[in-house]
Design goal:
The complex is a heterodimer of chains A (171) and B (489). In chain A, 39% of the residues lie in helices and 16% in strands. Chain A has a 4-stranded antiparallel beta sheet, sandwiched between helices. Chain B is mainly alpha-helical. A 3-stranded antiparallel beta sheet of chain B has the order 1-5-4. A two-stranded antiparallel sheet of chain B has the order 2-3. A two-stranded antiparallel ribbon of chain B has the order 6-7. In chain B, helix 13 packs parallel to helix 16. The N terminus of chain B is likely disordered. Classes of the chains: A alpha+beta (171), B mainly alpha (489). Chains A and B meet through helix 1 of A and helix 7 of B. Chain B: InterPro entries: Ariadne, BRcat_RBR_TRIAD1, E3_UB_ligase_RBR, IBR_dom, Rcat_RBR_TRIAD1, TRIAD_supradom, Znf_RING/FYVE/PHD.
Amino acid sequence: MTTPARRRLMRDFKRLQEDPPAGVSGAPSDNNIMLWNAVIFGPHDTPFEDGTFKLTIEFTEEYPNKPPTVRFISKMFHPNVYADGSICLDILQNRWSPTYDVSAILTSIQSLLHDPNPNSPANYEAAQLYRETRREYEKKVAAIVQESWNDDDDDDDDEGEEDEEESKAGS
Amino acid sequence: MSGDINRQLSHMSEASSMGSDGNSSEDLEEDNEYYMDNTDDLDLDCPSKADDPEYFEYEPLQLIDAEGMLNEEIEALCTKLKVNPSTAKMLLFGHNWNKEDIIENYQRDPQGFLIESHLASRRKHDNLIGVRPTCSVCCRDFPPDRFLGVACGHMFCRECWDMHFQTQIQDGITTGIECMAKECSILVPEDFVCEILSQPKLRDKYSKFSFNDLIKSHPRLRFCPGIDCSVIIKAKECKAKKVECQACGAIFCFKCGLNYHAPTECDVVKKWLTKCEDDSETANYISAHTKDCPRCHVCIEKNGGCNHMQCPSCKCDFCWMCLGDWNNHGSEYYECSRYKENPNIANESMHVQAREALKKYLFYYGRWENHAKSLQLEEQTTAQIQSRTQRKVMNNEGTWIDWQYLLQAAALLKKCRYTLQYTYPYAYYMEKGSRKELFEYQQSQLESEVENLSWKVERAEIVNRGELENQMDIAEKRRQTLLKDFLEV
C-alpha cells in the first residue's frame, strides 16, 4: 500500500542514491520503509574524525509534516546527544519544515558534530568539558570513536536493539 | 463592577431584613441597632476605589459577547489601516492588541512593519519551472495552477498545504501556523487556511482554537479558570487583582490566572508553589497533623482553624505553631510569625548553611500549610454555624437574620486567613531590612487578630456579639493596612 509518507520516502531514497552527500549514508531497513538505518562518518578536523556512527531513523505516516525520530545506536559523547542516543536538534523539533528530507537530516546531524551547542546541553558532562577543558572532551570523544569501529564487527544482518546491546556491553 | 455587585447584594440583604421586622417593640429596638451595625460592616465589603487596595473593575462576558468585542476591535483596525480582516487579526494578535502602536508603526513603514510581524517578505515569488513543476514537499509534478503560496511566495501544491494545516491544527496550532519552507517564519493567514482545508470538522476546530488564542493573547480578557466554566472576564487593565467569577465562584488573579495571592506578586507565588511542589516530601514529613500538649504531653489533634489551643486534659493554653504559652502571644505582639535568622550563618560550613536554608523554608512552609489547613477546617466551622443557627431558629431563639452576623464573621475570618496565608511566600522571598521588619510586624499583628477572631468565632455562643463584631472590624482593618502598604497598586 502506498501512502504519501511512503511515496515521499521512496523519493528521499532515490535522491540519496543519485546525489549522495559527503560523509553520510542511509537506507530503509530490509522489510520496512518506515525504519531507516544510517551512518554518519565523523567530519574531518573534528575530534569525531574517522568514527563511523550508526543511527536509526523512524518515520510515521505523518512524515513529512512531522519530523522522524532519529537516534544514535553507536555510543556517542556530545553535548547535544542524550544518554539513550536521541538528539537535541532544533530542526528535528520546533524548527522542522516539511521540505527537509533524509539527506538534509543527516547532513544537519553531521554539522552538529562539528558545532555543538553547549547552551542547550543534553549531556551535561560533555557540555561542561567542551566549554572548560577541551582536551578532556577530545579524549572522551576519541574513546567513542574507537568504540564505533568495534561496532562494525558485529554488523552482520542484525540491526537496532542487538547493536545497541553490543555497544552497551562494550562500554 | 465588584463594588457594584456588592452594593446590590447589600441592598438586597437590607431589603430582605426589612421585610421580616420584629414582633415586639423590644425586638424593633434591637433590630434598629442591628441595622446600624450592619451598615458599618457593609462598608468593609463595599469599598470605594480610593481606599481599597484590592479594588478592581471587571465584568463577566459570555463567549458571544467576547467574540463581538474582538471583532469590533479587528474591524476598527481594518478600516483605519485599509487591510483585510485576516491581516488585522494577526497584527493585533502579534502585538498585544496595542492598537495605537500598530497604527503608528504601520503608518510609518507599512511594508517594514508587516515584514517584522511575519506577514510579508521581500523575497521574490518562486519561479515555477517547466510545464509541470515539482512540489518540494511531496516531490510530485503538477500543472502550475495547482501551486499556491502566501506572502513569502514559497509555492507548494494544494494537497501538501492541506496536510500541513491538518497536522498543525491537530497539534492545537492555529494562529501560529507558518509557511512550510525551511527557515521561513511567515504566518499563514486565516482566509488562506480556511480556503484550503478540506475537512469541515477541522475548520470548526481551527476557528475554536484561534478564538482561544485571541482571548489568551488579549491583555484585558481572561478565561475563568474554574472547571467547566465558559465565562470570560473583561477588565479595564491587566493587573494582578482579585477576580471572583459570578458563575462558578472561582477566585483568581486576573494577571496570572492562579489562585488570588495578594500581597505576593505573580512570579513570586509561582516560584513559591514550584518550590513547595519540589520540597513537599520533606515538608510533609515534618508537618504532622498532631502535636503533643507542651505541658502534659497528651496527643492533640487539631480539628479547628484556631491556633490558640487549649489542652482538653490539663487546660493549658498554648500556640499550635510554636507550642509556647498563649498568654505571651496575646499581650504585646505575636512573635511566632517572625523567623529568627541565625546571625553567624555566614561563617558556618556549607552543610550547616544548607540545613539553615531548609529550616528557613520549613518555617515559612509550615505556616503557609497550616493556614491552608485551617482554611479547610473553617469550612467545617461555617457548616456548624449554619446548623446551629437553624436549630436556634427552630427553637424560637431569635430569627434567622439575628444570627447572620455569625456567618458574616466566619466569612470575614476566611478572607483574613486567606490573605495571611499568602503573606508567607511574600516574606520568604523578601530581602532582609527595615521593610521586611515592617512587613513582619504587620503580619504578626494580623496573625494575632485573626487568631483572636478564630477563637471567638468557634465560641460564638458564649462570646458577646459586640465583642465579636469589634474583633471582626479590627482584623479586617489589619488586613487592609497590610495590603495598603505592601500590595502593588
